[in-house]
UniProtKB/TrEMBL annotation:
It comes from Upupa epops. Keywords: ANK repeat, Endosome, GTPase activation, Metal-binding, Repeat, Zinc, Zinc-finger. GTPase-activating protein for the ADP ribosylation factor family. The gene is Acap3_0. The lineage of its organism: Eukaryota, Metazoa, Chordata, Craniata, Vertebrata. This is Arf-GAP with coiled-coil, ANK repeat and PH domain-containing protein. GO terms for cellular component: endosome membrane. It is found in: Endosome membrane.
Length: 132
């Protein structure tokens, strides 16, 4: 009686295992069919993504180029005088007068640099706190 019962258990376990395998097969078969329908959309999306990567790289290169040009332009402006900041007046009654902004180092503990208005009058460098 016990041998018959144990033999019956083996067939029930095998039957349960087989039904589990069929369920798995059906699950993956349905997943494949659903994703197979999306295959053209995924391919189209992949090509658009490739184009976006290329466009992004081109835009990044252009921005880096513009940034380099702006830095170069600001460096050139820093080393040359600006007509709006510096005036030359050869007809001044006391000789040649130049005036404009210069950077002056502060005398406080932090020693920061500040932009201040200076002029040359009577061959002397003059610092004016307020522009008159």
């Amino acid at each position: 009686q016990i041998n018959v019962l144990q033999a019956k258990k083996k067939f029930e376990i095998l039957d349960a295992m087989l039904s589990f395998m069929h369920a798995q097969y059906t699950f993956f078969q349905q997943g494949y069919s659903l994703l197979h329908e999306l295959d053209p959309y995924m391919k189209k999306l992949a090509t658009e993504l490739d184009q976006l990567v290329i466009d992004s790289a081109v835009e990044k290169r252009e921005m880096e180029h513009k940034h380099a040009l702006i830095q170069q332009r600001t460096l050139l402006q820093d080393f040359s005088y600006d007509d709006s900041k510096v005036e030359f007046n050869v007809d001044a009654p006391n000789g040649v007068v130049m005036e404009g902004y210069l950077f002056k180092r502060a005398s406080n503990a932090f020693k920061t640099w500040n932009r201040r208005w200076f002029s040359i009058q009577n061959s002397q460098l003059v610092y004016q706190k307020k522009l008159k």
